Amino acid sequence: MLKGKKMIISIASGKGGTGKTTVAVNFALSLKDVQFLDCDVEEPNAHLFLKPIISEEKKAYIPIPEVDEGKCNYCGQCRDVCAYNALAVFPAKDDKKGHWLLFQNLCHGCGACRLLCPQGAIKEVDKEIGRIGIGQSYDIQFIHGRLNIGEAMSPPLIRQVKQHINPTKTVIIDAPPGTSCPVITTVKGSDYCILVTEPTPFGLNDLILAVEVLRKLQIPFGVVINRADLGDSGVEKYCEREGIPILMRIPFSKKIAVLYSTGIPIVQEDPSYKEKFVRLFEHICQTYKL
Amino acid sequence: MKICVTSEGGNLDSKVDPRFGRCKYFLFVDTETLEFEIKDNVSANASGGAGIQAGQLMATVGVKAVVTGHVGPNAFQTLQAAGIDIYIGASGTAAETIENFKNGKLKKADAPDAAKKSGFNR
Prior knowledge:
The complex is a heterodimer. By secondary structure, chain A is of the alpha/beta class. Chain A has helices at about 20-30, 45-50, 75-80, 110-115, 155-160, 180-185, 200-215, 235-240, 255-260, 265-270, 270-290; strands at about 10, 35-40, 55-65, 85-90, 100, 120-135, 140-145, 170-175, 190-195, 220-225, 245-250. The mean pLDDT of chain A is about 95. A 6-stranded mixed β-sheet of chain B has the order 3-2-1-4-5-6, with helices on both faces. In chain B, strand 2 (about 25-30) and strand 3 (about 35-40) form a beta hairpin. The longest helix of chain B has 12 residues, at about 50-60. Classes of the chains: A alpha/beta, B alpha/beta.
């Protein structure tokens, strides 16, 4: 790790609804000199708790192909190189003219079709996929992405949100649920990942998948068990067996649920949690920082 | 006339696969001679664009019509651009379906009748 560079810590889960945002928000509020990124761009919600003042909003785009039908000879090279099946091309036949069809929602904006078109018939045009909001909450620098409604592809927006990472601050990243591309795009490059889970068979099943992802990406991680006094002991046993550190156990508490439902971070009402998160941060830094 | 029937198996006694883009097999059939050719649907498990790939294949093979159970929006748009007729609501065996097609008992689709990805992992 470079000298002066601070930790990038992402909060992920596998299963949705385990408390990622609760942990991420309260963690961020407990630390000093923090930048917070909400990368759950399909349903960002950290702003409901951090209540940032958004001072700048930028549109986010991906490049999608547009064909010049005057130059296109319908050879189909663009279709053949498209890894996402986003193009269909039919040559002219009998009295019918040729067709070049783009399915925008499948296009990842990789640019292969433009690069490899033998006729130079394809150019790229910007398609708006979402917005990036930049602001301030207390002394936290806040950035989130909001994917446009109906848009299927979140990784390009997540990458653009992550371009705002400020390495001189401690960066806390709220990840989307799941274990597929959006999560991988989000946690890639993190120095550490906190996996929030719940002690249920669903929580365990998805935790195991998330652990596999992080091991593959070689990102060190630990587990926070939310609603730890409910459910069964499967998660605890799994973590013990696999040598995964359990960083914190948050009890099932009506007080926490009520605070959540009104958008109030726990640490603002119960300072003992602030201490717990500070200790958690110190533990991570001591264990994983050079 | 050369048509394509989506099928769950590799012969004319096989059941019609109700999905187009994500069917198991394509049976390319000459409706006069009943001679046919089987092709695996290699895109059946694609994460996206299976209907587009299937539609593209129909144009390459040069069928005049596709006969299946249901067709999704991307496949519909692709087949329409390729000028291929789409007949939906087929059930029973491939042989029965070809007979029904020849007797004009199948409905020509004028719009997609299935949602995106609805044939995935069924």
